[in-house]
TrEMBL record, chain A:
Keyword Cell membrane in record: yes
Origin species: Methylobrevis pamukkalensis
Subcellular location per the Swiss-Prot or TrEMBL entry: Cell membrane
Residue spans crossing the bilayer: 17-34, 70-88, 137-161, 167-185, 236-255, 267-292, 299-317, 329-353
Protein name (database record): Putative permease
Topology of this chain in the membrane: Multi-pass membrane protein
UniProtKB/TrEMBL annotation, chain B:
S-S bonds: 11-14
Keyword annotations: Disulfide bond, Redox-active center
Active site (catalytic residues): 11, 14
Domain of life of the native organism: Bacteria
A Pfam short name: Thioredoxin_3
Protein name listed in UniProt: Thioredoxin-like fold domain-containing protein
Coiled-coil portions: none
Amino acid sequence: MTVDTHEPTVPRGRPDWLWHSGVLGFVAIWYAVYTQLIPVSEWIASLFPVDRHSHTGEAIAFFFYDVPKVMMLLTLIVFAMGVVRTWFSPEKTRALLSGKSEGVGNVMSASLGILTPFCSCSAVPLFIGFVSAGVPLGVTFSFLIAAPMVNEVALVLLFGLVGWQVALTYLVFGLGIAIVAGFVIGKLKLEGWLQDWVRDIHSGANTPVAIQDERLSMVDRYRMGIEAVREIFGKVWMWIILGIGMGALIHGYVPEDLMVRIMGAEAWWSVPVAVLMGIPMYTNAAGVIPIVEALLGKGAALGTTLAFMMSVIALSLPEMIILKQVLTLRLIAVFVGVVASGILTVGFLFNLIF
Amino acid sequence: MKTVKVFGPGCKRCQTTEAMVKEAAAKLGIAVEVEKVTDARSIAMAGVMSTPGISVDGRLVHAGGLPDAGKLEGWLRA
C-alpha cells in the first residue's frame, strides 16, 4: 500500500482573511458576553418571584449562570484544543516516542496524550501503531492512561464548576499517575503478556505501513476546531444535563452529616470504595463533574472525591473490553491494579493533607 | 469500479464517513464498492492509527476524523 503525499488542493469557498477575522471576531464577542454573564444571570434570577438566597433562588441563578458559563468555556477551549491538536497527529506522536527510553519517554508520552487527538474507539489501532513502531510498552501505557483521563472537557468543567485549584490538582496528579503507572508497567517487562498476534508485530515481523502527514492550511485547522466543538457538544450535552440534574438532587436531598460520614476524610475505607464504585460506572467527565461539585459541597473529602472521579474516567469497563483484543486478561489486570493503586495513593494523600 | 475501504470499529463518525464516500461517488458518477473494515486487527494492519480511515484501491488516503468533502472528491477522482 502506498500513500499519496501530494494532496490535490481544493478551491475554498471563502478567502483566508475572512476566516482569520471571523475567528478573531468570535473570540472578541465571546469575551464580551462572558464578562456580562454574572449581571445578566442575576438580572434573570431577579425576575423570578423567589428569594435570591432561598434554595430555589440559588438553583435558578445556578441554572442561568453556571450552565451558560460552562457551555461557553467548553466552546472556546474545545475549539482551541481542536486547532492545537491538528499539529499533533498520532503519527507524529509515535515518531517522537519511538525508541525513547523509559522515564523520559513516560513523561513525554503522558503529556502528548493530552495534545494528541484520541478516541477510545481507536485505542486498539493506536496501541498497535505505537508498539509496532518500537514505542516501549510502558511508554505506550502512559499515553493510553493520560489521553482519556486528562482531557480538556474534564479540566474545563472542573475549572468552571469547582475552581481552578482543583482543576490544576487534577491535571498534575492525573499526569503523575499516567507517568508512574506506565513506568511501573514498563519495569515489569510484560511484553510476553500481549496477545500473540500483537507480539508478532512487535518483533518486526509484520509491521503495518504508516500514512504520511497531510499538509494543512490554517483554515483547515479552524475547520477541524469547529468540527471538534460540534462533536464534543453532540456527545456531551446530555451528560452535562444528567450530571447537573444529579448534582442538584444531591444538593437538595442528601443530608450533609450522612455525606461527611460516608465520604469524609475520617472514613479511610471510603477511598477504596470510591475507586471500586467508579470502575463499572461509565460516564464521561461531563457527567461526573457536576456530581463531584455537589459531593464536595456536601462535605465529601477532596481526596475521596478525586479518587472517585479519576476511577470513573480512567478505568472503564468498555475500554477494557476493547483492550482485550490486544492485551491478555493478566495484563489488563496488572494495568487496572497499577492505575487503581495510583488513584488510591492520590486519594489518601489528599485526605491526609487537606 | 473503485474499491473504497472505510476503516473504523463502527462509531458514529465511521458511519458518517461511509455515507460521505457514497454521496461523493454518486455526485461524481464514479462506480465504487464501499467496504467497511471493522475488525481492530485489520484496521491496525492497514496502518490506520486513528479512525475513521479511508483507502481507495488499496492506497491509504486518510486517517482520523471526518474527511474534508472536497478532498474526498479528489481522492475518488484520482
